[in-house]
């Protein structure tokens, strides 16, 4: 087999694999909702530094706070407001606060949870190695002496309930990063590697809190639908329908929920009067298809909404034309 034939065979295999994968992948509905299972108004307190690396506690704390600020479904109390308020009350926001202080901070700020923690250890290393300095056709053809610089941070992060003052969740998180340079290249220090390691810790903490305290749904309203594997694919997503369409379809994919949660799919009119309601029980990974009969409805504005555990998680406005 010559090279051109091998390339064609390889491309054919790739095409088959991609087609097979696409057959099994169900595209997500276009809209996304993330809702808190508990009230998630957080304040991020100072972190304690149990390492010998000055300032690493603030680096980790700042990265955790930034990640939480950018996470849907989570509200973070302003750091400047927090510091000002605690200063007025002559209180400390240092890590590992006691239960009474946690309750008092919650009362002053209105937040439901406090996030604090400790940087337990920081490890930086320089190890002799080799680095490729010349490549040909994707293969290394020349190596030279090099140094691998690596940084690792071990931290513990706690979530404190301001209603009880008790720690309700404790996480061990590790972040690391490294770079390999030729020996003659100047290394500008470990700060960038430690910042990247702190970002990994922040992402781990945010992911854990989101998984614990929030639910995620994907949803969309369509004129028609087809079944694919264990899910549904919507066709002709729209916000304008006609009574002649007969039925419209709400697809909901429960990408992250708790098990056996009550869910209601509701069709209501512009005066908030419920026209149709479908009661259901759902769990993580469930796909649901809800159909609403609009053939006898008058022209005007309507809403398709989803209610999970008694709380509205989304609302889709649409119109029915004559």
In short:
The protein has two domains: 32-214, ABC-type transport auxiliary lipoprotein component (Rossmann fold), CATH 3.40.50; 238-321, Sandwich (Immunoglobulin-like), CATH 2.60.40.
Give the integer mean of the pLDDT values: 88
Number of helices: 5
Low-pLDDT runs? 12-24
Structural class: alpha+beta
- Overall domain count: 2
Give the second-level CATH assignment, the architecture of the largest domain. Answer: 3-Layer(aba) Sandwich
Strand portion: over 45%
The number of E-state strands comes to 15
Tell me the CATH topology of the largest domain: Rossmann fold
Order of helices and strands: HEEHEHHEEEHEEEEEEEEE
CATH superfamily of the largest domain: ABC-type transport auxiliary lipoprotein component
Q: Which oligomerization state do the chains in this entry correspond to?
A: single chain
The top level CATH class name of the largest domain: Alpha Beta
Q: Which term fits the overall shape?
A: flat
Keyphrases for this structure?
alpha+beta, 15 strands, 322 residues, five-stranded antiparallel beta sheet, Rossmann fold, five-stranded mixed beta sheet, 2 domains, Immunoglobulin-like, 25% helix, 50% strand, flat
Structural account:
With 322 residues, the chain is an alpha+beta fold. Helix content is 25%, strand content 50%. The chain contains 5 helices and 15 strands. The strands form 3 sheets. Strands 1, 7, 8, 10 and 13 form a 5-stranded antiparallel sheet that branches. The protein has a 5-stranded mixed sheet with strand order 3-2-4-5-6. A hairpin with a 5-residue loop joins strand 5 (139-161) and strand 6. It is flat. Residues 12-24 have low confidence and may be disordered.
